[in-house]
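Sorry to interrupt, but I need a hand with the structure work. It will help me judge whether the discrete encoding reads sensibly. Write everything out right here, beneath this request:
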Amino acid sequence: MNTDFILKQRLICVAVIDRPDDAIPLAESLLAGGLNVIEVTFRTAGAAECIARIRKSVPQIAVGAGTLLTPDQVKQAVDAGSQFGVSPGLSEAVSNAAHKHKMPLFPGVITPSEVMRTMELGWKQLKFFPSETSGGVNALKALIGPFGHTGIGFIPTGGITAAMLANYLAIKQVAAVGGSWMADRKLVAEKSWSRITGLTAEAMNIIAATSAK
């Protein structure tokens, strides 16, 4: 899948789904709020099933797999229909598996050395993680300094809230922001679908206002 579609809305919902039965209602709630991208993290046993269910029943939404730590998880994600993958760090084994299966990957980076290595491995969109505990917007701007002319894009993720969204999106090299606040694990467990839709719509309004400037 072309990553342009994945990143077009400049927001990726990062979701931990404990019960596969919640996958479809969650995807539908995000769509109702105006967002068509979700990253289902491989932090639960049912992650692959959640991805498969969303792909089958909510085709309007792009679904990816997050927290990919091993080549085997990459294969599970691809077999489930994942359209992109996200890793919290840089693993050459995970990178090679993603290339093998022709799945777009957003590897995690936090240092200049990691950025340079991911570029060598052929990736253009990098997850800046954990963003807030690593210095947030100012740290990301400093990291971008040597790479701003390379065409590399960043997806800051980790501890970001709606209140911080505009500041990140104001950075030219930020392709999108990864966030879980609109679909917090507790909200999903409680089946708070209308609340998730409302928080998603709020985020999309912020993005629209930022883009209009």
